[in-house]
Amino acid sequence: MQKDVFNIVQCQQCKLIYVNPQPDDISIYYSPEKYHGFFIPDSHRKIIETETNVFIKVKNILKKITLSIHYGYFQNTKKQGLNKFLKFITFLLKYRFNWIFPKYRKNGKILDVGCAGGDYLKKLQELGWDVWGVDISAESIIYAKQVLGLTNVYTGEFETMELPKNYFDVVTFNGVFEHMQNPTKCLTKCHDVLKPGGEIILTLPSVDGWDCKLFGKFWCWWEAPRHLFFYSRTTIKNLLNKNSFEVKSIEYSPEANSFLYSLTGFLSNILRKRANKVLYAVIVKNRILYYLLLPVGLFFSKLKMTSTMTVIAVKK
Fold first, then answer.
1. So what's the pLDDT on residue 199?
2. Which CATH number does 8-31+157-315 carry?
3. Total H helices, total E strands in the chain
4. 19: which strand partners?
5. SS3 for 104?
6. What is the predicted pLDDT for the residue at 12?
7. Which residues of the chain have pLDDT under 50?
8. Quick one: pLDDT at residue 95?
9. Where are the domains of the chain?
10. What pLDDT does 197 receive?
11. What Cα–Cα distance (Å) separates residue 271 from each residue in 30, 121, 220, 278, 290?
12. How far is 212 from 209, CA to CA, in rounded Å?
């Protein structure tokens, strides 16, 4: 069966990289048979977490410490000296727990675009946020409502959805913004629904990553046509600035996942895909290799050269 071929080009003026032309019907590339990324709720995972499990109790304690030190939740102002030490030793945990959280806001209102099954929103709700979510997957929204008990979650396209204006403190895109067909229209919508001084948080692939340069066409995030735009530090800053957002910070994840996936794809191509499952198990699922690569990831994150960046920008 012949695979679809898509052109990835770069604008010679602004240097933005994108798929051209975009598919006429993007929805067919998000069918359950072809794409499973939008709906993997925690309860569907093989390991069922229980409070009686000692490992899970330790993990939950570490999560609470990370939320306190890095994001301002559960703060104790009497422990500032200890906090500085804990901030240093818990730096990696921010990324190991997969989610980037907004800074604590009392009675804050947050909208997650591409909320999937709602696990992230549920955690934010437990932390005191008024949570809203949007996703194109009806199955995901049903799960978020019926299983997690979330109410303000909706099926549809973010750009055309009716949402309250000047209402949200934060809008988040966790691995979603690169999927948006019209980034300018998307940012205009964000600007409309955010309060003055509200923040947008984007976690997305970065073409500045060292593994992108190393693996070239085998870099794992060239996921056309689901990924339609591919950003560098410069192009995402320019895009946000043109759409009335001021970039507050850009942080780079030290995690090694993109390197491991890219290496698997590269070797799979050499072996003509005969060893896909073996390579995936030996490389991607290899926790020892993952942790051995963390110092490399830390080094390149300080150079702003890893493949995942988190951008925080403020509405002007």
1. 98
2. 3.40.50
3. 12, 10
4. 8
5. coil
6. 95
7. 1-2, 42-51, 77
8. 67
9. 8-31+157-315, 50-97
10. 96
11. 28, 41, 17, 11, 22
12. 5
**pLDDT at 180 (0 to 100):** 97
User: Residue written as tokens 């996921």?
Assistant: 223
Please report how the helices 183-193 and 233-242 are oriented relative to each other, as an axis angle in degrees rounded to 10. Answer: 50
Q: What percent helix, strand, coil does the chain show, rounded to 5?
A: 40, 20, 40
As a whole number of Å, the end-to-end CA separation of the chain is 49
Identify the burial level of 294 via C-beta atoms within 10 angstroms of its C-beta, where 0-12 means exposed, 13-18 middle and 19 or more buried: middle
- Please state at what angle helix 54-71 crosses helix 80-89, rounded to 10 degrees: 110
Q: What token pair was written down for 14?
A: 């602004």
How confident is the model at residue 46, as a pLDDT?
Answer: 41
State the number of CA atoms in the 13 A half-sphere of 171 facing the CB: 31
Q: What is the pTM of this model?
A: 0.86
Give the DSSP per-residue string, 134-199: EES-HHHHHHHHHTT---SEEES-GGGS---TT-EEEEEEES-GGG-S-HHHHHHHHHHHEEEEEE
Output the CA–CA distances (angstroms, integers) from residue 191 to 68, 76, 171, in the order listed: 29, 34, 10
Interatomic CA distance for residues 70 and 118, integer angstroms: 23
The pLDDT value recorded for residue 144 is 95
The predicted pLDDT at position 39 comes to: 53
Q: According to the model, what pLDDT value does residue 32 have?
A: 64
| Of 238, 180, 201, 200, residue with least CA distance to 315 | 200
What pLDDT does 43 receive? 46
Radius of gyration of the chain (CA): 20
> Which pLDDT score, from 0 to 100, does residue 89 have?
66
Residue 166 and residue 175: Cα distance in Å, rounded? 24
pLDDT of residue 281: 76
CB of 120 within 8 A of CB of 134?
no
Residue type at position 126: E
3-state DSSP assignment of residue 110:
strand
